[in-house]
Design goal:
75 residues; mainly alpha; 0% strand; elongated
Length: 75
């Protein structure tokens, strides 16, 4: 991914993390609460098989749509 697109995507992920604060379901693995920023990054990595910086530029819109889905349904 180009540095410009990586920066854009990182900002989008940060906004999603902020939107998810306090909305993630409780987990016994995280007794102090879950980190919504890490949640978004991990979900993106699992879904697309790479860190956000390593995803192909052609998938930028798909990644952003996926992040929107995470915010809408934070399971």
């Amino acid at each position: 991914m180009t540095p410009e697109n990586a920066e854009r995507l990182l900002g989008y992920m940060r906004n999603a993390g902020r939107d998810l604060e306090g909305r993630l379901p409780d987990s016994i693995d995280h007794p102090s609460g879950r980190n919504p920023y890490a949640h978004v990054a991990l979900c993106v990595k699992r879904r697309f098989g790479a860190s956000y910086k390593d995803i192909d530029d052609s998938l930028l819109e798909s990644v952003m749509e996926y992040i929107d889905q995470l915010v809408e349904d934070p399971r």
